[in-house]
Design brief:
The complex is a heterodimer. In chain A, helix 5 runs antiparallel to helix 10, helix 7 packs across helix 8 and helix 9 crosses helix 10. Chain A has one domain: MetI-like (MetI-like fold, Orthogonal Bundle), CATH 1.10.3720.10. Chain A is elongated. By secondary structure, chain A is mainly alpha-helical. In chain B, 79% of the residues lie in helices and 0% in strands. In chain B, helix 1 crosses helix 4 and helix 5 crosses helix 8. The termini of chain B are close together. Classes of the chains: A mainly alpha, B mainly alpha. Chains A and B meet through helix 1, helix 6, helix 7, helix 10 and helix 12 of A and helix 1, helix 6, helix 7, helix 8 and helix 10 of B.
Chain lengths: 311, 318
């Protein structure tokens, strides 16, 4: 019924994941080695780099404010747009604040906000996707139409509309980012679940007379987790980009708080001098998003290989 | 007998219209219903309740939501988006002055990015698993994830600040010669291309790979066709549909990408108009811009669908 389905960009960015393929049993040889070695053997070099970056930024999000050399808003230098130096490793910003501390303090906004929004988006999207796939017919049709319509508003534009109406506070930003990416998550989880619904064990469960909720929870959901996790990572990347883009436009996190996007914006005046204050926050965003992408790509590759793939 | 194809096309058109209707309801719901009151906002805190209710009546805000939505929809369909709150000009006029600029930017970006992306995608699919493919994979994977403003700021840093080849801002006044045109558009187009090329190339690669696994490709290889011939003669015609889809999706990403790029380079396009409207909370203008963006997106998807239908002989002839 939904043959049309203009696939959302995220669905084809990567080779289609082996939909619903059961989690591969650990090779017995790998199981005997220590957990760390097993972890290492799961990833390629690039994947390990990605994993390292992601863990690093996650850690910074939590302990950043503690380890920061200066207080977040403290003006510590008379020099504005200072360059790299021993007192200020990443230079100073347009008011003479320490850039490293600004970035460390900003991490919790960029990473934390995006993480919360992604959890919301993926959670709600998966929930509705499951409902649509399990109940079929009318519910499916209505939900699909609705989310298809939402997808046709570009996420940044949708975010702008909501911010125009409600202003931008931290909870609002979280909702905006989640709202913008729920349709994509719905799309993917629905198509995964629809495929799973045709499998024999689900048919058997239906014939057994199991309730729909049971089927969704016990038969379908566990088999979607793996691809949905990869999708979660992608969605996280998109949301980081969306939120920092909004902040860059001055419509995201509002001063005195600052995420990395706002840091780029407030220091854009230093661009002509090539100040680290404008480059470093942008580089921080890029490392985070590229890191997540590398990690997911490596996971997916490994996954498809061990599924006897080579697809 | 093209009845089948025609019916398909009609169905797609209907679907697009339905989508547009839902979008308009969502947009109106977000901007027109929930947030407090335009009358209160226009009059400020000091207004008396009588003044507010008078203005509410004048704006028609005292009518039920459905009526207001219907009225708004009728106006929008006839091209009347209302009057901008910040400068009292008709929204449609504001959009009409900015839209061509955005279309030129998008068109130029498409002109550069589509051939480049197809080349990269097809090459990396042909030599899959080779060092070339791996390098391109990592490259595109990283570029997809880099925020536009990083690309833009680095481009400004290199080309405008260090090399002084290009102006840091786009002024549309001097596009008289080809050289001036290139100087004006080089950086915005370059920035937009970066993200889009990567995305499109990845999708193209996936589409071609999908076909390369088909048995007719094996057949062609077995009968001795060169890899080049297999790809160009056998595979490509079959991938037109998926590739058109990939191109449309990537180009639709443009509509989000221009939001940042137009603001950075101060380019007088539709997206920067919308950002200003959001900053000023100019709702009629925001509504108008969103609807234009959506129509553009749906048009792209529709064109991709048509390509898919037309390029599929089974749908054409039966």
């Amino acid at each position: 019924m939904n043959r049309h389905a203009p696939t959302h960009a995220t669905t084809v960015l990567y080779d289609p994941p082996a939909a619903g393929a059961p989690e591969e049993p650990q090779a017995p040889a790998a199981a005997k080695r220590g957990p760390l070695r097993r972890l290492v053997s799961r990833f390629s070099v690039l994947g390990l780099i990605g994993l390292f970056i992601v863990v690093f930024w996650l850690a910074v999000a939590f302990i950043g404010p503690v380890v920061a050399p200066y207080k977040g808003g403290a003006v510590t230098s008379t020099e504005i747009f200072g360059s790299y130096g021993p007192a200020h490793w990443l230079g100073t910003d347009y008011l003479g604040r320490d850039m490293l501390s600004r970035i460390l303090f900003g991490t919790q906004y960029t990473v934390g906000l995006a993480l919360a929004a992604t959890l919301l988006a993926s959670g709600i999207g998966t929930f509705f996707g499951l409902i649509a796939a399990v109940s079929g017919r009318w519910v499916d049709e209505i939900l699909s139409r609705l989310f298809d319509a939402l997808i046709s508003i570009p996420s940044k534009v949708l975010a702008l509309v909501v911010i125009a109406a409600f202003g931008s506070s931290i909870p609002m930003l979280m909702m905006v980012a989640a709202l913008a990416y729920i349709p994509g998550a719905f799309r993917i989880s629905r198509s995964l679940a629809v495929n799973l619904m045709t499998l024999e064990y689900v048919q058997v469960a239906r014939a057994r007379g199991e309730r729909l909720f049971y089927i969704a929870r016990v038969e379908v959901l566990p088999n979607m987790i793996h691809p949905m996790l990869a999708d979660f990572g992608l969605r996280f990347v998109f949301i980081v980009l969306l939120l920092s883009g909004l902040s860059f436009l001055g419509l995201g996190v509002q001063p005195p708080n600052a995420d990395w996007g706002s840091l780029v914006r407030e220091n854009i005046g230093g661009l002509a001098e090539g100040a680290p204050a404008v480059l470093m926050p942008a580089v921080a965003i890029a490392t985070l998003t590229v890191g997540v992408n590398l990690l997911i790509d490596s996971l997916r590759r490994h996954g498809s290989r061990s599924h006897g793939g080579g697809k | 007998m093209k009845v089948h194809a025609q019916r398909l096309i009609a169905a797609r058109l209907g679907l697009a219209l339905l989508t547009l209707l839902i979008v308009s309801a969502v947009v109106f719901g977000i901007t027109g219903l929930l947030p407090g009151d335009a009358a209160q906002q226009a009059l400020g805190q000091a207004a008396t309740p009588e003044q507010v209710s008078a203005l509410r009546h004048q704006f028609g805000l005292d009518q039920p939501a459905i009526t207001r939505y219907a009225q708004w929809l009728v106006h929008v369909v006839s091209g009347n988006f209302g009057t901008s709150l910040s400068n009292n000009l008709p929204v449609s006029q504001l959009i009409a002055t900015r839209l061509p600029n955005s279309l030129v930017l998008a068109g130029l970006t498409a002109l550069v990015s589509v051939p480049l992306a197809l080349l990269i995608g097809i090459a990396s699919a042909m030599f899959r698993g080779s060092p070339l493919d791996r390098t391109l994979n990592v490259l595109t994977l990283s570029t997809v994830a880099v925020p536009e403003f990083l690309v833009a700021t680095i481009a400004v840093l290199i080309f405008a600040v260090k090399l002084r080849w290009l102006p840091a801002l786009s002024y549309l006044s001097d596009v008289s010669s080809f050289g001036a045109l290139v100087r004006t558009y080089a950086m915005p187009v370059m920035t937009l291309c970066c993200v889009i090329v990567a995305q499109m190339a990845r999708m193209t690669r996936a589409a071609v790979l999908d076909q390369l696994n088909a048995s007719y490709v094996e057949m062609a290889t077995l009968k001795g066709a060169s890899p080049m011939r297999v790809v160009l003669r056998h595979v490509l015609p079959n991938t037109i549909g998926p590739i058109a889809n990939a191109v449309a999706l990537s180009l639709s990403y443009l509509f989000g990408g221009v939001v940042i790029v137009e603001s950075i380079f101060n380019y007088p396009g539709l997206a920067s108009l919308m950002v200003d409207a959001v900053t000023n909370r100019d709702m009629p203008l925001v509504q108008g811009c969103v609807m234009v963006f959506c129509v553009a997106y749906l048009a792209l998807v529709l064109i991709a669908d048509l390509c898919q239908i037309v390029s599929n002989p089974r749908l054409r002839q039966r």
